[in-house]
Amino acid sequence: MKIRERFFLVGEEWTVIHLPNRPNGFAIIIIGDVNHFVRNNTSSWHQRPDQAKFIEELKQAGYTLVYSNLFGRHWGSDEACRHVKRLYDDVMKKEILNKKVHIISEGMGALVAAKLIPELKDAIRSVVMINPCLSLKDYFDQEKSNKLFYKRFLKELKKAYNLEEIELEQIISEMVIHNYQRMPIPTKIIHCMHATPYSLQSHVRPYEQFCNKDEKSVEVSIYLKSKPFHELATPTIQFLKKHQQQL
């Protein structure tokens, strides 16, 4: 019986790779939201039935899936970005796959995906962002007014960025969408209006407008009602397949 998933370490972070029964030769790197984790024999994607079904549908479509623990709540840190690049190199050395990968990011994971687009532009085939957080500044301001959660959020940021509070506030206050770079990488944003704390107007629309200023590379799908997570697999797969004819 063939092994269809493997857990291994990349650096000190646990990583898992899912191997499909009928591989199509393309890999997807998944970058999860705040509750994403990988341990030595399980992950958040294994433990949540709806996300497990999402993974299974991608495997049924032939994709090799890989994701790493990524230091927990990294909030788009440079360390998290470096780790994904290391993960890409590691997987390409060990597996027989097309060198251009798809990226799927959820929530906070979009902060890393958006930073990686210019850094890995020759290695990325397409990007799907599900309910993305694309403005750390906006989310910081939102949480700052919520005394119940702000202290925890600040602690997470200090750990992720290895900075003290005063330095953090200064850096985040200067963050805008324009900190990102425009690159003509096909990108689809899926936004479910009532299933995310990251608003359409503060996160999705500014990024869409910025990226599409010169070239229409970002398309947005909006769902007014919450959808089970696994139902997002179908539009995701349709988008990925559309961009698999590139060299």
Polypeptide structure, described:
The chain is of the alpha/beta class and 247 residues long. It folds into 2 domains: 5-134 and 185-242, Rossmann fold (3-Layer(aba) Sandwich); 136-175, no CATH class. The protein is 40% helix and 19% strand. It has helices spanning 44-47, 49-60, 78-94, 109-119, 136-144, 147-161, 165-173, 200-211, 233-242; strands at residues 5-10, 13-18, 27-31, 64-68, 101-106, 124-130, 187-192, 218-223. The longest helix has 17 residues, at 78-94. The chain starts with a strand and ends in a 5-residue tail after the last helix. The model has no long low-confidence stretch (mean pLDDT 93).
Q: Measured on Cα atoms, how large is the radius of gyration? A: 17 Å
CATH topology of the largest domain: Rossmann fold
Distance separating the two termini: 34 Å
Strand content: 15-25%
- DSSP E strands, number: 8
Specify the number of helices. Answer: 9
- Give the biggest sheet: 8 strands, mixed
Please sum up the structure shown:
The chain is α/β, with parallel strands linked by helices and 247 residues long. The protein contains 9 helices and 8 strands. An 8-stranded mixed β-sheet has the order 1-2-4-3-5-6-7-8, sandwiched between helices.
Key phrases:
alpha/beta, Rossmann fold, 9 helices, 40% helix, globular
What is the topology?
Elements: E1 5-10, E2 13-18, E3 27-31, H1 44-47, H2 49-60, E4 64-68, H3 78-94, E5 101-106, H4 109-119, E6 124-130, H5 136-144, H6 147-161, H7 165-173, E7 187-192, H8 200-211, E8 218-223, H9 233-242
Parallel strand pairs: 3-4, 3-5, 5-6, 6-7, 7-8
Antiparallel strand pairs: 1-2, 2-4
